[in-house]
Amino acid sequence: MVNRRSDDTFRSARNLQFNRTTRDALGKRDRTDFYKFRAPGQVDFNLALSGLQANASVRLLNSRRALVAVSNRPGNRAEQISATLGSGIYYIQVQFLGRRGTTRYNLRTSATPTPTPPVGDETIATAFDIGVLTTTFSKQETVGTGDPIDFYKFALNDIANLQVRVNGSTAGTKFELIRDGNNNGLVDSGEILASNSSFSANSLASATQDLPQGTYFIKVEPTSTQPTQYQLNLIPTLFGGNVSPEPGNTLPVASDLGVFSGTRSVREYVGTIDTTDIYRFTLNDLSNLQITATASSTPVRVQLVRDANNNGLIDSDEVFVSREGSGVTTPARINEDLPVGTYFVRVDPRFGGNSSTSYEMTLVGNPYGGNGLPDPGNTLSTARSLGTLSGTTSLKEYIGVLDSDDFYRFTLSNAASLQATLTISSTASSSANNNIRLIQDTNNNGLIDSNEILRSGIASFTPASLTRALQAGTYFLQIEPRFSSFSNNYELTLVTT
Fold this sequence. Notes:
Blueprint: E1 14-15, E2 21-27, E3 32-39, E4 43-50, E5 56-62, E6 67-71, E7 79-85, E8 88-96, E9 102-113, E10 128-132, E11 137-143, E12 150-156, E13 160-168, E14 173-178, E15 192-197, E16 204-211, E17 214-222, E18 228-238, E19 255-259, E20 262-270, E21 277-283, E22 287-295, E23 300-305, E24 319-324, E25 332-338, E26 341-349, E27 357-367, E28 384-388, E29 391-399, E30 406-412, E31 416-424, E32 434-439, E33 453-459, E34 464-470, E35 473-481, E36 488-496
Parallel strand pairs: 1-3, 10-12, 19-21, 28-30
Antiparallel strand pairs: 2-9, 3-8, 4-7, 4-9, 5-6, 5-8, 11-18, 12-17, 13-16, 13-18, 14-15, 14-17, 20-27, 21-26, 22-25, 22-27, 23-24, 23-26, 29-36, 30-35, 31-34, 31-36, 32-33, 32-35
């Protein structure tokens, strides 16, 4: 049982000793423990909270009781805080977050003098190197007279959402988030990814930005001639990118997903630094493809592309489906029936290259089970020959944006009754409608004259069925979409009796 103690306020905080493990417990009746310590100078501070049986968080606060850093991982996972602190009094708050029960905990801290930063940290070349950023980084420094600018350098080994927070204690501060894209050691036009300013003491300058892997810099300077002590907090939230190498931004260097069926999810970044991602995949069967692209910061646009002329460029008529998300809660979605072939998916920010976001795109491919035959022609003279019909013949094919007509030719050696049934795939759009026509080219001119259509029908969510008694001879069936912007896979069944 956890008993209420007198250490649950700032005033009653217990003194903490570095490099020793403090053991205690929290629960519903005693939800908070406070500790305090003094940093004798600028120190690199580390805290570990372990041995949890339930959810708890830990917060680091300064002498003004302002938040310096926090760790709040889900469940009973261990908590960690690392920060560079100036001299002074600090508080640690350990808080029980469960609704019931109790938890024990082990609290251990350390503080070592901060290494002296390189002399002249006022340029990119001499920036203070934070290293690889994976958890919250905090540092207190002074900028102003005699030290007008501070530069910090850090690396991201994963796509991340980064929060930058700068708080000046005696005057306003300004910061810039920078990527030295050409590695010339200068801040050129277009290399400032984000910036913000505060113009009074104890006010916050902050920004949030999604970033890909890479090396970045933070520049901090005062907004007036008055020097100020400031606190810099960098808070990364790693996204878990899973595409390597980076998707290209042209068709020839597209990320290859190979022969595709089943489900594949990719997690990537697109935006200011990398304006377009392109993926390539191949379908070996008629398929239904569903794409869902969910963005974390700003909506994305997803396009399906077919390089019909194989010139390695996206020509004006080669984007045949384009969808946009309307916010981070409404993803971009594509649901399209497709024939055999090679395709590309292009992802870019909906509002152009000045916006950035990480995104998760899920592709689901469901084979339809085509017959594996060459595509039917789109004229009478190029119609696929079915030979002499007898009994039942079943065909599966695609019609739509990429193939506007299918023609089949068949022969009856004797008079017979023909029943032709056209069924649209269940995965197609509810707006997909196909025309089916039974034709006899009586004058053999290779054209469909007005009196040569023997029967016609429309297939939608219900099949279309044509029945006709025919004499011996050669006939044609034509399948075409009723609305040219909708595509679908279909099954055509022919029964002669």
